[in-house]
Amino acid sequence: MSMPIFHMIAGAPDPVAPFSHAVEADGWVFVTGQMPFEGLANDSAYPEGIEAQTHQVMKNLTTVLSGIGLSLANVVQVRVFLLDFDAHYARMNAVYASYFPPGRRPARTCVGVTGLARGALVEIDMVARRP
After folding, report:
1. What's the pLDDT tens digit per position in 5-58?
2. What is the pTM of this model?
3. Dihedral pair phi/psi, residue 123, rounded to 5°
């Protein structure tokens, strides 16, 4: 097994805690859950509403992936964390589905949680694989 590579991506939001944007080992890339920060500072504002926050999280994830030469096409697994599962599940899914073509969607788990960093409505992490 190769030594892990710890990635910090220029242009991605600063982490809210002590972690890397992504860690890579043997072609597997584990992307830390991204928050819906609109700016780079981890105290930047979040957009209003679950749809806008989901779009921003996906944008931030795409920034991390592109910073290491990957894209959403390399993603094999996703976890979605929702602050208000019942109210936001369908609306988050509508946005999320627009990022992956039918027949090429990663495996996914979605869970309701009691809290997310800085009051976010959604957080998403990913596992990708280098070709």
Report:
1. 999 999 999 999 999 999 999 999 999 999 999 999 888 999 999 999 999 999
2. 0.96
3. -140, 140
Contact predicate 52/80, CB 8 Å: no
Assign residue 16 the CATH number of its domain. 3.30.1330.40
CB 34 within 8 A of CB 80: no
The number of distinct structural domains making up the chain is 1
Beta-bridge mates of residue 25: 28
Distance of CA 120 to the CA centre of its chain: 13
Range of the domain at 18: 5-129
**H helices of the chain, where?**
50-67, 85-97
What is the torsional sign of CA 53, 42, 44, 63?
negative
Token duo for residue 70? 């990957």
Would you tell me how many other CB atoms lie within 10 Å of the CB of residue 83?
Answer: 18
The closest alpha carbon to 37, from 108, 109, 127, 117, belongs to 117
